[in-house]
């Protein structure tokens, strides 16, 4: 098996699975595939970074429980804005 045969994941599938990765709810094979994709795909990697920060923020603010959808959405927008600012500086 060489790099040319490396399985290409669809970005939308990766984005959908990022929460599973962050919650440690995917098996080792799926984790390897996702991380392999993140290493080679800047847009998915950025999305992963945003979700990771979001998850950390939510667990700090809410003691680890799931945040209300409104809060999660607001934090997502805030983090996305700060990431965008950081990239343009
Ligand atoms: Zn991707």
TrEMBL record:
Stretches assigned to the Putative zinc-finger domain: 11-44
Pfam families found in the cross-reference section: zf-HC2 (PF13490)
The protein's name in its UniProt record: Anti-sigma factor RshA
Organism: Gordonia spumicola
């Amino acid at each position: 098996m060489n790099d040319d045969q490396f399985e290409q994941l669809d970005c939308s599938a990766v984005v959908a699975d990022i929460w599973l990765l962050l919650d440690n709810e995917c098996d080792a094979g799926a984790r390897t595939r996702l991380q392999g994709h993140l290493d080679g795909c800047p847009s998915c990697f950025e999305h992963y970074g945003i979700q990771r920060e979001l998850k950390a923020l939510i667990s700090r603010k809410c003691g680890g429980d799931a945040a209300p959808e409104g809060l999660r959405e607001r934090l997502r927008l805030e983090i996305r804005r700060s990431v965008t600012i950081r990239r343009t500086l």
